[in-house]
Amino acid sequence: MGQGIDATGGGASSFYPKPAWQTGFGVPADGARDVPDVSLAASNFHDPYNVLSGGSWGLYGGTSIATPAFAGIVALLNHYLVANKAQSKPGVGNINPALYQLAQTVPSAFHDITAGDSIVPCGKGTPGCTTGQFGYTAGPGYDLATGLGSVDAYNLVTQWNSNQPIPTTTASMVLSSSPATVALIRDTNHCSPQYPYYQQLNLQEQNGYEVQLSASYFGSWRLAPFGFSTSRPLLEYHEPAPDSCL
Questions:
Q1: Within the chain, how many helices (H) and strands (E) appear?
Q2: Average pLDDT in the 104-133 region?
Q3: Region of residue 85 (left: phi > 0; alpha: psi -120 to 50; beta: else)
Q4: Which residue among 2, 13, 155, 201 has its CA within the 20 to 30 Å range from the CA of 107?
Q5: Are the C-beta atoms of residues 193 and 230 closer than 8 Å to each other?
């Protein structure tokens, strides 16, 4: 670096142990927190960012650009989750566990970088330098040069909940009849020699809640032949006749 040689940063931490969520193909079994997690364009030599700062434009690179660029992607993720009612308010917390899980379930959220390296000359005897060169090689899956790969912002945002079920709420309700007991009356309109007594139970969907019913009874309940409808009976009750309908 002191001689004008730049490379990506990465490696295993000497201080922090590997978190439980840092798993997946290519992740070293070194017991250490490995970085990077993801890659973004950062070189100010071949694809710098044109930044307006202090009233003047300049070409910049490095993590000073890649970090706010990724923060912008996370901001778009927040907007997307709220707009699509996956969350009631923005905020995704520590996204690292989700990134590594997403890499396994929706690999298209990242562009796996499999060629290139971060190897640069180093002074023998300095920390980590034993051969006069130091760095890492990119390869399939996670690597210490590029992490999980570069980010596909569209797939990352739209597929975020593919491995994280959207929280749902359930509601239960108790149905009661008024009066508490209902007398079955012979109904000549629906009467047949086999089923002279006929009764209907009407259930209606309200406020978007689906109705499910369990009941104890005598006789024979069965689903109405036309299935569920908010305007038609859900269940019919039939009591077999000992002799005839009339």
A1: 3, 11
A2: 90
A3: left
A4: 13
A5: no
| Neighbour count for residue 70 (Cβ, 10 Å) | 19
With beta carbons less than 8 A apart as the criterion, state whether 147 and 100 touch. Answer: no
Q: Which two tokens stand for residue 107?
A: 């690999």
Contacts of 164 (CB under 8 A, 6+ apart): 98, 101
Q: Is the pLDDT of residue 70 over 50?
A: yes
User: All domains of the chain, ordered by start, with CATH?
Assistant: 11-162 (3.40.50.200), 169-246 (no CATH)
3-state secondary structure of 107: helix
Backbone φ and ψ for 220, nearest 5 degrees, come out as -135, 110
Where helices occur in the chain by DSSP H, the ranges are 63-83, 96-105, 153-158
Determine how many CB atoms are found less than 10 A away from the CB of residue 80.
17
Beta bridge partners of 238: 198, 220
- Residues 6+ away with beta carbon under 8 Å from 174: none
Question: 3-state SS of the chain: helix, strand, coil percent to 5?
Answer: 15, 20, 60
User: Average pLDDT for residues 193-199, to the nearest whole number?
Assistant: 49
Closest-CA residue to 151 (of 115, 117, 111, 113): 111
Q: Which residue has the higher pLDDT, 26 or 175?
A: 26
**pTM (2 d.p.):** 0.62
Name residues whose C-beta falls within 8 Å of residue 178's C-beta, 6 or more positions apart in sequence.
none
Write down how long the chain is: 246
Rounded average pLDDT over 1-21: 81
SS3 (DSSP) at 124: coil
Dihedral (CA of 171, 177, 180, 183) sign:
negative
